[in-house]
Design goal:
Pfam families: Aminotran_4. By secondary structure, the chain is of the alpha+beta class. Helix content is about 30%, strand content about 25%. It has three domains: about 5-40, no CATH class; about 50-170, D-amino Acid Aminotransferase, Chain A, domain 1; about 180-335, D-amino Acid Aminotransferase, Chain A, domain 2 (Alpha-Beta Barrel). Strand 3 and strand 4 form a beta hairpin. It starts with 12 loop residues before the first strand and ends with a strand.
């Protein structure tokens, strides 16, 4: 066994394999491992994760080298977990309570009990946001069956676990249109699509399929031929009668942002800019024949879509009403009522 300082990257090694020259380092102490992790993170110029919370650790972590999950957590090796996301914009948390309500509904469907009541979860997330000092970004949080063992059943998990992280990110309006394709990756069944769980392999493959074809993302169509959703966003349309159409939520995730948009849209109806708003089944033919199309999601909040399967949507450019909807939602995010925007109590 060969040993030297970590500064020249010569580490303790153990020969593995049949005559292989590949050697695996054995960390002799936790301090040595931590030093190695700190070296890794020291090369990151702009630290994207200013703070994390872990119920396993029992507090907020500011050192990125320690932002870790147990490998025997049921969420890690079995995908038994749920998550959600809230936006931090100009020092305010947008729609935290709405997202937290959905988070706990997802947990109930996944048969995961929270280690804390909702009021405590909320307090943890607010304190985490404050400790991060982040004024613009995302607050992502997970609830898992917890660590315990590597069996299929979570029976060996003594308690559920709650994790959260603040991600420093730019949240802004999108004014350029993107291309989409129809996904060939099978969508999730309604039981799993209607809860925000961590089993996102279909979503990942759907997104990758689109990127491989030069598109931004894909659109799922259900087995009845109706429009469903994007890989991690809702989709909406404006038809030639100036009606805003949103797919029903019975087989897809009930998006917090698109539901907020539906609550705000009557303002444009009152102004005469839109004729009506409906949640309804939408066929592919109706969708591709729409005047305008868009993705709707927390981090977007609205992303215009101008081409679908190499065919233009409407005139093939960003629509006026799409941007009116974007402005409506953005105004709510930056200057909406206190029921939607919670000031972060930074120290």
């Amino acid at each position: 066994m060969e040993k030297s300082s970590s500064s020249d990257q010569k580490l303790d090694t153990l020969e593995v394999g049949n005559g292989s020259d590949f050697k695996v380092h054995i960390f002799s102490s936790s301090s040595e491992l931590l030093e190695n992790l700190h070296e890794k993170w020291s090369s990151v110029k702009n630290q994207p994760y200013p703070a994390m919370y872990s119920s396993v650790f029992g507090g907020i972590i500011l050192d990125p080298a320690l932002m870790l999950l147990p490998i025997d957590d049921h969420m890690v090796h079995r995908g038994h977990g749920v998550f959600d996301t809230a936006i931090i914009l100009d020092g305010y948390l947008y729609e935290l309570d709405v997202h937290l309500d959905r988070f706990l509904r997802s947990a109930s469907k996944a048969k995961i009990s929270s280690p804390f009541p909702q009021s405590v979860l909320r307090s943890i997330l607010v304190q985490l946001s404050a400790a991060s000092q982040c004024k613009k970004g995302t607050l992502r949080y997970w609830l898992s069956a917890g660590p315990g063992d590597f069996l299929l059943s979570p029976g060996g998990c003594t308690t559920s676990a709650f994790y959260a992280v603040v991600i420093d990110d730019d949240i802004s309006q999108h004014k350029d249109g993107v291309k989409v394709i129809t996904s060939t990756v099978p969508m999730k069944s309604p039981q799993f699509a209607t809860m925000k769980n961590v089993n996102y392999l279909p979503n990942v493959l759907s997104k990758m399929e689109a990127e491989e074809k030069g598109a931004f993302a894909s659109i799922w169509v259900d087995d009845e031929g109706y429009i469903a959703e994007g890989p991690n966003v809702n989709v909406a349309f404006i038809n030639h009668d100036k009606e805003l159409l949103v797919p029903l939520f019975d087989k897809i995730l009930s998006g917090c942002t698109v539901k907020r948009l539906l609550a705000l849209v009557p303002k444009l109806v009152e102004q005469g800019r839109l004729k009506a708003v409906r949640t309804t089944n939408i066929t592919v033919e109706e969708a591709k024949g729409a005047a305008e199309m868009m993705f709707v999601g927390s981090t977007l909040p609205i992303l215009p879509i101008i081409t679908w399967d190499e065919q233009p949507i409407g005139e093939g450019k960003v629509g006026e009403l799409t941007m009116a909807l974007s402005d409506l939602l953005w105004d709510d995010m930056v200057a909406g009522p206190e029921t939607q925007r919670l000031p972060v109590p930074y120290v």
